[in-house]
Write a structure and sequence with these properties.
By secondary structure, the chain is α/β, with parallel strands linked by helices. The chain is built from twelve helices and 16 strands. Helix 1 runs parallel beside helix 5, helix 2 crosses helix 5 and helix 9 packs parallel to helix 11.
Length: about 400
Amino acid sequence: MARLDSQIVSVIHRIHDCSVQAALAISGGGSQALAWLLAVPGATRTVLEVTLPYSYAAFDRFVGFQPAQYVSPETAIVLATTAYRRARLLAAEGTPAIGLACTAALITDRPRRGRHRCEVAVRSEAGTMSYTLVLEKGARDRAGEEEVVSRLVLHALAQACGIENGLDLGLLETEQVEVRQVGDPDLILRVLRGDLPAIQIGLDRTVSLELPRDVVILPGAFNPLHGGHLQLAHVASQIAGREAFYELSVHNVDKPPLLEADVRQRLEQFYGRGNLLLTTAPLFEQKARLFPDSVFVVGFDTASRLVNPHYYGESREAMLASLQVIRGLGSSFLVAGRLNEGRFRTLAEVPVPPGFEDLFTPISPEIFRSDISSTELRSRFAGPADWPAT
């Protein structure tokens, strides 16, 4: 490696000497900053983890969904938030943690019609900072654009560490960095728009980007939430010995997306009753990526769909591959019996593929059985205002 610029070395020494620990996610440009960080002694005090989700598939898997644009302030913030969750898991207790992300569109081996730009975001307990830089097209070669972006990545990290006089970015007169402190937007609306894959909504209506793992999750439409849901979540939490969450997805494989009014109406039911995860994930493979090492609580009918090739484009291979991914993410299923076609049916009647029996555990009807039906409740009462208290 060529000798590092003395200013870069000085800034990195100051970063390593501060108490912050960081997880970094870099896509499309800015990776030179990682080499600089690791080349200066003391990197183990700063760098927790480095992720390079370079391909679209890797990027989608890392954040848990496919963004509308890969290079945008919103996408960089989601990427930084995902890195921040990793940092919180890996940082030493009591140590400030940050997630830093960069997503960029730079010179390639084919003409790029759009602007050459980068988006950098830093997420910490204090909030989120966003940095946008549009580069003068044709003014630099790939190495030159990479250096500018990498300097911005390092500069943003330095500022997150409280180092105000950071790095000279080497910008042209026509270029400037737009810096924004991101406030607390309506996160529910951002999930509905697809900007975020999931949020957590607490008992007290607190909305958070922090997503749990190693928990019990009861997915459903909750139209309406009723006593059977509450009892099932409680029983499953006791069986698994983990905290219980409910999960409402704005998308469903068999139905149109939920409207904003419907989502907000259903959310009202959970205040004071349970912690809710609002997601864009209709498939259990997607849910498992968002909430690894978790136990999903389902009924007989959902368990049957999970092992039905019809829901995988009529492909048994795709069905088996999805179950394998879920297993690899440390997730599994607790299956409650349900009234179906006039009789109570259990996991014993679900055709679980050989080799995947350990992925499904029955909930004995002696421990839990509820024949309450949301469909029946909707047919008996005029609307939400008339639904019985749960």
